[in-house]
Design goal:
Elements lengths: L4 H4 L2 H13 L8 H13 L5 E4 L3 E7 L2 E11 L26 H17 L4 E9 L7 H7 L2 H4 L4 E8 L7 E2 L3 E4 L1 E10 L3 E2 L9 H19 L6 E10 L5 E2 L2 E10 L2 H22 L2 E10 L2 E3 L1 H15 L4 E2 L11 H7 L2 E7 L16 H17 L1
Parallel strand pairs: 3-4, 3-5, 5-16, 6-15
Antiparallel strand pairs: 1-2, 2-4, 6-16, 7-14, 8-12, 8-13, 9-11, 10-12
Helix pairs in contact: 2-4, 4-11, 7-8, 9-11
Keywords: Hydrolase, Manganese, Metal-binding
Pfam families: M20_dimer, Peptidase_M20
GO molecular function: metal ion binding; N-acetyldiaminopimelate deacetylase activity
Length: 383
């Protein structure tokens, strides 16, 4: 890995920011301390940040010397509702909240880019630095957009990244076209008629209904989706009952459905609704499904993917940048920004513990290197 010398010199500052944010994680929509840290750093660089966009979002602009295109760079700021078992000196000070997805590193990376660009503005155009809340809930990007993000700060192109433990440290990946799944988060509520476990014929059993729904869900991908299309539907929660001899009056299920095609997502969603209707008729229960969050697939434009790949190659080596990996099954609401402006979302390997595990910690060695990738993108587009 070969970071730009100017950004290598900022590694200690980026590490300090990252570890401060890691020690004080904040859940989606509650990133007030992180947003203030970001705002204060940007203001200290002589920039004029704006806060409160889409909730806790913060935006600042670095102006080039001459007119030209606008390039957006985005980082997410929120943490996860889980414990931190990393046993590092900067571990979370907030029980049940942890930066187990590396958004602390993403934020520190973009702060490093901001400091570099403030001292070395582009020859033309401008760079829009976007610090986004609430990625984990899938609500932050669209909230910023609805709050006028791209009306006030138009972008001709947008770029973002994620650390990727599935790739070794020192490697990167940039897809063209579908890059990550879109998804719908769903919840099913089942209302029945409870009663004695020895008299089930006098009940409308929501447990039976829940089990039938869960079983039928497994057939959606296998029987209603083209086998050449990547698709996934997962039941992650099933709750019902409180006693061994009482048929409860209600039950619930929750989960996600994911695909790289919006059409496939809609097919699965329709079939899930059909299953709920059918099971309701069969059992006599009221079965209601609703979408609690949704994000479209992440789609990289070819030209911008090539720019990101070349920039990553300048840091990691062209032979260490994967261009032909299959799309990842994960999701990121950066997809909404890519619907507004063409761009690219790239991955940087860090190996080790997978994200969303309690022992995870972002690898600080990535900070000056990924910041250098962003700086190279800016140089390529605004030199």
């Amino acid at each position: 890995m070969t970071p730009l010398p100017a950004l290598a010199a900022l590694a200690a500052d980026m590490t300090a920011w990252r570890r401060d944010i890691h020690a004080h994680p904040e859940l989606s929509g509650q990133e007030s301390r992180t947003a203030k840290l970001v705002f204060d750093v940007l203001e200290g660089l002589g920039l004029k940040p704006e806060s409160g966009i889409g909730g806790e979002g913060v935006v600042a602009v670095v102006e080039g010397r001459d007119p030209g295109p606008s390039i957006g760079l985005r980082a997410d700021m929120d943490a996860l509702p889980m414990n931190d078992d990393s046993n590092v000196s900067h571990a979370s000070t907030r029980p049940g909240v942890s930066h187990a997805c590396g958004h602390d590193g993403h934020t520190a990376t973009l702060l490093g880019v901001a400091r570099h660009l403030a001292a070395n503005p582009p020859a033309r155009g401008r760079v829009v630095l976007i610090f986004q809340p609430a990625e984990e809930t899938g609500l932050g990007a669209v909230a910023m957009i609805k709050d006028g993000l791209f009306d006030r700060y138009p972008c001709d192109e947008v770029y973002g990244y994620h650390n990727m433990p599935l790739l070794p440290l020192g490697e990167a990946a940039v897809h063209t076209g579908p890059t990550m799944n879109g998804y719908k988060v769903w919840k099913i509520d089942i209302q029945g008629v409870g009663g004695h476990g020895a008299a089930p014929h006098k009940t409308k059993d929501p447990v039976q209904a829940a089990v039938r729904v869960a079983s039928e869900i497994s057939s959606i991908v296998g029987r209603h989706v083209d086998p050449m299309e990547p698709a996934l539907i997962t039941v992650t929660k099933l709750q019902a009952g409180s006693s061994h001899n009482v048929v409860p009056h209600e039950a619930s299920l929750a989960g996600t459905l994911r695909a790289t095609s919006s059409d496939v997502i809609e097919t699965m969603w329709q079939k899930l609704q059909d299953i709920c209707t059918g099971v309701g008729v069969m059992t006599g229960c009221t079965v209601t499904v609703r979408e609690t969050a949704g994000v479209p697939p992440v789609f990289n434009a070819a030209a911008q993917a090539n720019v990101a790949a070349a920039a990553a190659g300048g840091v990691f080596g062209a032979d260490k940048v994967h261009r032909d990996l299959k799309p990842y099954p994960f999701t990121d609401d950066f997809a909404y920004m890519l619907q507004i402006a063409p761009g690219a979302y790239f991955f940087v390997g860090q190996g080790g513990t997978m994200v969303h595990q309690t022992a995870y910690d972002f690898n600080d060695d990535l900070l000056p290197n990924v910041a250098s990738v962003f700086a190279r993108i800016v140089e390529a587009k605004l030199s």
